[in-house]
Amino acid sequence: QGKAKKARKIAQQRFAQMKKMISQSDPRIKEEKRALPKKKKREDPHEIKVREVPQASTALFFQYNTQLGPPYHILIDTNFVNFSIKYKLDIIQNMMDCLYAKCIAYITDCVVGELEKLGQKYRVALKIIKDPRFERLTCLHKGTYADDCLVQRVMQHKCYIVATCDRDLKRRIRKIPGVPIMYISQHRY
User: Fold this and answer.
1) Which of 11, 55, 67, 122 sits CB 3.0–4.6 Å from 118 for a disulfide?
2) Quick one: 161 exposed, middle or buried, by C-beta within 10 A (0-12, 13-18, 19+)?
3) Which residues of 94-130 are buried (b: 16+ CB within 10 A; e: fewer)?
4) CA dihedral defined by 135, 141, 145, 148, rounded to 10 degrees?
5) What is the pLDDT of residues 81-111, one digit of tens each?
6) Please, are residues 54 and 67 in contact by the beta-carbon 8 Å criterion?
7) Total domain count, the chain
8) Domain for residue 47, yes or no?
């Protein structure tokens, strides 16, 4: 019985390997159920070709972003605030030291919402953010996911520098042309 059982098992495995799906345009299927074979349309050489390309920002007319200039407008992410506290860095003072110009720090409602959700452990970050030197930007969308909010703002207005230490957010912002990223490296901006 053992040999018969093994032989049956091997036969089933071979059948499973051989079993394949028949395509809808196969001639073995009845004509009324058969799908028509796909034919490529020949391109007319005289027809005008239309390409859809996303409209580029007028700020990027030259090689660099013309909307960037002092005073710099900087959008701050949640983890940037947390890293500045961890390394004991004054956010606005270090931004000015980094860029050698006046900086206006902006905090969106989403970033504040994220910090409030993180709880009691991040109360120092919340206290720092509520400083009057930081300007608040109101969000009109639902939810408190700051990464999407920051990317959306930067896509609409190319006048911001994004301050973040988040790898995923940096990767997303690098795909948007003309948007600089500020991050903390070796205990400095």
Assistant:
1) 122
2) buried
3) bbbebbeeebebbbbbbbbbbbeeeeeebeebeebbe
4) -90
5) 999 999 999 999 999 999 999 999 999 999 9
6) no
7) 1
8) no
Determine, yes or no, domain membership for 86.
Answer: yes
Q: Give domain status of residue 77, yes or no.
A: yes
Question: How far out from the chain centre does Cα 116 lie?
Answer: 23
Residue 50's CB is within 10 A of a number of other CB atoms, namely 5
Distance CA 160, CA 104 (A): 10
For the stretch 125-173, pLDDT in tens is 999 999 999 999 999 888 888 999 999 999 998 999 999 999 999 999 9
When pLDDT is cut at 50, 70 and 90, the band that residue 18 belongs to is low
Domain CATH for 94: 3.40.50.1010
